[in-house]
Amino acid sequence: MKQTSLGLGASTKRTRRREFLDEMDSVVPWADLVALVSPYLPDGKRGRPPFPVESLLRIHFMQQWFTLSDPSMEEALHDVPLFREFAGLGGWDDRLPDESTILRFRHVLEKHKLAQQILVVINDLLRAKGLMLRSGTVVDATLIAAPSSTKNAGGERDPEMHQSKKGQQWYFGMKAHIGVDADSGLVHTVRGTSGNVNDVIEGNSLLHGDEVNAFGDAGYQGVSKRPDAKASIQWHVAMRPGLRKELDKGTPMGKLIDQIERTKAQIRAKAEHPFRVIKRQFGHVKVRYRGLAKNTAQLHTLFALSNLWMARRQLLRAMA
After folding, report:
1. Distance CA 188, CA 184 (A)
2. What span, in angstroms and rounded, lies between the C-alpha atoms of 7 and 91?
3. Taking all residues of the chain, what is their mean pLDDT, rounded to a whole number?
4. Residue 280 lies inside a defined structural domain of this protein
5. What's residue 4's pLDDT?
6. Is 22 among the domain residues?
7. What angle do CA 297, 83, 88 make, to 5 degrees?
């Protein structure tokens, strides 16, 4: 690694950010991801020498981990020695990627649908380590807010985002639908839709096809009767809250049904963990771009990285 001109990158204090980057540096399959992305990037025979593919990937991932836009990422590379060190770049006296370079790299990922492939590569690694089983899937969805203001150049909100009501409150944005491994809680399928799409519509599209059982909350009532349902899948959908309140838990049958619902809820809780990671750990609480395609591509990357973060301890133990 190159020395920074003022030696500011030589700090040995183990900050939380440094610990986080060290762990992710160890568990991300860099060689496989570089091999995936490299064929779609310029060969560098003309113009300025290109930045290493791995450096651009590391920068792209730091944007997801620390909620940084393209301009903010450029500034962070100039301001934060730790970020330059993680990306394998030099100091202030060396050329650093500007926001246009970072933007173009992201556009390459979007154009060739490489974010989806990044999720596949990472899940293949996790499956090879025995961390993802394929017997059951938990499906769930969450709302991700979008700017509702019309104070922009077009004078309108994003036409691909829509309102959705949850409880007694209205939200404007998109939905992230995920299929999660029922044993490990790791995400294997991601779908992005506008906020007004009902959860049950996407339910069967979140299955990988090899599972025997599928679990969903009360919003997936009727999913097994839809045209795209597979007869080989046994759905376990939560009872509607109103019906559950009417149960007479003093009777053996009522007590048994309530216990079954508790068991199903414990399994469904696995789907909440990835949402917590991308929203609380990575800070993704609002869409960054206009349009569903770009934001869905980002979701694929976020959930791929969340899988690595949730499985990092098992991966580190396996490496040791």
Report:
1. 11
2. 9
3. 90
4. yes
5. 41
6. yes
7. 90
The single residue listed with the structure tokens 């995936």 is 36
Tally of structural domains, the chain = 2
pLDDT of residue 142: 95
Same domain, 153 and 252: yes
Same domain, residue pair 148 and 51: no
The boundaries of the domain holding residue 282 are 134-291
Of residues 16 and 151, more confidently modeled: 16
**Structure tokens of 42?**
């310029």
Residue range 42-97, pLDDT digits in tens: 876 565 678 999 999 999 999 999 999 999 999 999 999 999 999 998 765 678 99
CA 170 vs CA 32, 287, 294: distances in Å: 42, 17, 24
User: Could you give the CA distance from residue 305 to residue 61 in angstroms, rounded to a whole number?
Assistant: 8
Contact residues for 57 (Cβ-Cβ < 8 A; gap 6+): 30, 33, 34, 37
CA pseudo-torsion sign 136, 123, 222, 259: positive
**pLDDT tens sequence across 18-27:** 999 999 999 9
Q: Are 289 and 298 within 8 A, CB to CB?
A: yes
For residue 120, tell me if it sits in a domain: no
Examine the pLDDT at 3 and tell me if it is beyond 70. no
Helices 292-310 + 114-128 axis angle, to 10? 20
Residue 190, classed as helix, strand or coil, is strand
φ, ψ at 286 (rounded to 5°): -145, 145
Q: What is the pLDDT of residue 254?
A: 87
Is the same domain home to 222 and 277?
A: yes
